[in-house]
Amino acid sequence: MHINKLLIASLSLVLSYTTANADPITQLANSNNSTNTKQTTKKTKQATKAKANKQVNKAPVAIDYSKPPRLYSHAAYVVSADDNSNIIIDKNSSSSMPIASITKLMTAMVMLDSKVNLDDYVTITQEDVDDIKNTHSRLKVGMQLRRRDLLLLALMSSENRAAFSLARTTFKGGIPVFVKQMNAKAKSIGMTNAFFEDPTGLSPNNRASAKDLAKMVAAAYNYPLIREDSTTKAADVMLSSRYTHRYINSDPLVRADSFQIEVSKTGFINEAGHCLVLYSVINSQPYAMVFLNSAGKSGRVLDAQAVKNYISRK
Predict the structure, then answer these.
(1) Catalytic site residue from 73, 93, 104, 185
(2) What is the band of 65 on the pLDDT scale with cuts at 50, 70, 90?
(3) Mean pLDDT confidence for 22-43
(4) pLDDT given for residue 239 in this prediction
(5) ∠ CA 128-263-232 to the nearest 5 degrees?
(6) How many CB atoms lie under 10 A from the CB of residue 134?
């Protein structure tokens, strides 16, 4: 009887050790054949070690935050926005390039400078319909919206008809006078390589350098309504008595609250590629960020996130 208890105790220890170190199939084999227990356990340990080594080999290489990140954007410029003295990123920053809907920041500034009544209603007309790229819009001809609502749609969701209608109705001379004011504004804030031909950015002739756009986004920061509208995540807009559409921000960084962003504007046409400008605050320091002609839609976002991480760890 004493011997049986010892045998039972020994068997319990073997089963306990096996359960802790083998997979379910091994456990089943152990319960049926105690002789194979040590061999199976040894194989299991070897397999586990091999799997661990394989996982180590697949582990991502640590990012070296002591060096500026490699970017997907063809041109980029990141600089401290308060005094322009601390240049973080400088890549092809003097090249004049198409800027697509980044244009709308200038459109917003010129419209707000005019002191036009933001609560006046503007009627969408055939003239506002895009005949350059034939882009789609939910703002149908004949719709009436307040000017402040059109500004929100132009900055938050990059609505082209909204931007064009704002420019068309701001000055008595219409679009030609408005575009003239855009170029004058660009000159006044030191954009030396910039040229504007239309208020939407659909024209590839709207051009500027990354350095120019850093100055523009810094100037845009001084307008509270631009800060508010360009960083609004989403808004429900009543387009008719029966239809309300939910517009969202075109910048996924704003929608995700990735970091503190005070001004944001995205842009895309084929000639410009994917573009992004930001006025952000990192470690209590404001930065103007410009990314032009990035590789793919997500490239500009990855670049902005990489630069933010780089600055945070400097």
Answers:
(1) 104
(2) low
(3) 41
(4) 87
(5) 70
(6) 8
241 is catalytic: no
Place of tokens 């609505």: 159
Residue linked to tokens 């103007």: 288
User: With 60 as the cut, is the pLDDT of residue 127 above it?
Assistant: yes
pLDDT confidence tier of residue 64, bands split at 50, 70 and 90: low
Q: How far apart are CA 143 and CA 163, in angstroms?
A: 14
Which H or E run contains 183?
Answer: helix 175-188
More confident residue, 8 or 133: 133
Domain at 73-313, CATH from 3.40.50.720, 3.40.980.10, 3.40.710.10, 3.40.50.1860: 3.40.710.10
CA distances for 185 relative to 18, 96, 108, 113, angstroms: 77, 17, 11, 10
Neighbours of 36 (CB within 10 A): 13
Choose the catalytic residue: 93, 101, 203, 264.
101
Task: Give me the residue spans of the domains in the chain.
Answer: 2-58, 73-313
The number of angstroms, rounded, from the C-alpha of 117 to the middle of its chain's C-alpha atoms is 32
Helices (H), 88-127: 103-113
Three-state SS for 55?
A: helix
Q: Does the annotation count 16 as an active-site position?
A: no
The two three-digit tokens of residue 63, written as one number: 């990012």
Helix (H) / strand (E) element for 72: namely none
- Residue recorded with tokens 């002789």: 35
Is 101 a catalytic site residue?
A: yes
- Token pair in block for residue 16: 């306990």
Query: Could you tell me where the DSSP H helices lie in 2-102?
Result: 2-21, 24-32, 37-58
